[in-house]
Amino acid sequence: MQNQKPVLHILVVGFHHKKGCQVEFSYPPLVAGTEGKGECPSGWKYLPTLALPDGSHNFSSDFVCFNLPSLTDPEQSVYGISCYRQIALEEVRIRTADLTRSTVQKSVCTLLSLPIYGYVEVKLSLIAQAFFEQGDFSATEILVKAYEQLNACLVSLEPQEIGSTRLHFVGVPLRDLLLKWRHKILILFKLLLLQKRVIFYGSPVHPTCALILGIASLHPELISKGFQQVACVKCVYFYRPIPSYLEAS
């Protein structure tokens, strides 16, 4: 993925009262040859749900980090950061027929080729705020410009700077996590070293994402290199011979 742009896509995921979470806009289109509206590759069928997680309607804003398998390389991952917003219907200047509830829930999301969640999160917050303040969700020019500017900003960095661990640690509130969790951070870190399965859950979801990234950042190069295969799914088939007593006589 070295030859790909740092920001692969920028998209909008909305909640439809009948269809549920769906991709409303993507640039460049997630499916080549389409207009980038309502299309999602089969390998990323869970993308809308990840970008707009369950329970997000209980909060006016939130962030969520997630990973997707690469569509081109089975040993690589794609990194997502989503900025969720919820506003009252009265704040929408141009209303469409699908806006049937008193609030509007949408998420502005970026898919990245590098695990620089915190670095993009700060900029994505401003992009989402400007997009919602327009009051017209069909005006996506601001998202196209943001995509070009984000890539231009990241490409302008020196290769050793963009590939260094410094960018991967931006936005990771490690000090706050240590003050909050204290010795439990050490326990979780040891479980990580022992390769134990640990379930993290919470609401809102952003503190949970920060906790996972914070613990992962304690292990050298785990975010910068170890996250490359975090979403890789390989199907392994085992041959199990049929017992003799089940074979046809």
Automatic annotation (TrEMBL):
Entry GO CC:
cytoplasm
- Per the record, the domain of life is Eukaryota
Pfam entry (one): Avl9
InterPro entries annotated for this entry? ABL9/DENND6_dom, DENND11/AVL9_GEFs, Tripartite_DENN
Question: Where in this chain does the record put each UDENN domain?
Answer: 8-249
- What does the similarity note say? Belongs to the AVL9 family.
Record's protein name: UDENN domain-containing protein
- Organism from which the protein derives: Anopheles melas
